[in-house]
Amino acid sequence: MASSFFFSLVLFSVSAIFLQGTLGEIVCDDLPTEVCSFSIASSGKRCLLENFENNNGKTGYQCTTSEVVVERMAEYIETDECVKACGVDRNSVGISSDSLLEAQSVSKICSPACYQNCPNIVDLYFNLAAGEGVYLPELCEKQRSNPRRAMVELLSSGVATGPVSSENIHGAPAPASI
Question: In this record, what's one Pfam family (predicted)?
């Protein structure tokens, strides 16, 4: 049963790539959920797997277009090899920088198999890390030389601290909630 699912997935991926070549365009909303995550539309925007509740009350999944534009990359469906090498899950809904706090996740992203061969996934995690005030190349270098120390430094950097301050970026108190 698993081999027939794998065969179907491979056949579908090949068909999607062939269809992309003949039509010349990737539209996230037209992609099957199995290849949605870590894909980039012809417009350069990332594809995003989202869930919804259907009429029967069951959770369904759909591929949508995010507003995030990837510079220097478009019309791209991530390979299964990169998904495996980077330790990411194509079936997860959304993505979080929380994975940067897990030593095993950082190790996979920073591994040569991922970091040197999977620019799409590395770009995504580079931006997630930057949003948390972390420079991914530096984190990967520290992770390669001393994994335990890299995680201690990351945790002590304030990236993983508690809730957001009540002051905004200009130093003024945040508006009161109603």
Answer: PAR1
114 neighbors 86 (Cβ within 8 angstroms): yes
Q: Which pair of structure tokens corresponds to residue 94? A: 């959304």
What's the pTM? 0.69
Q: Which of 44, 34, 82 is nearest to 65 (CA)?
A: 44
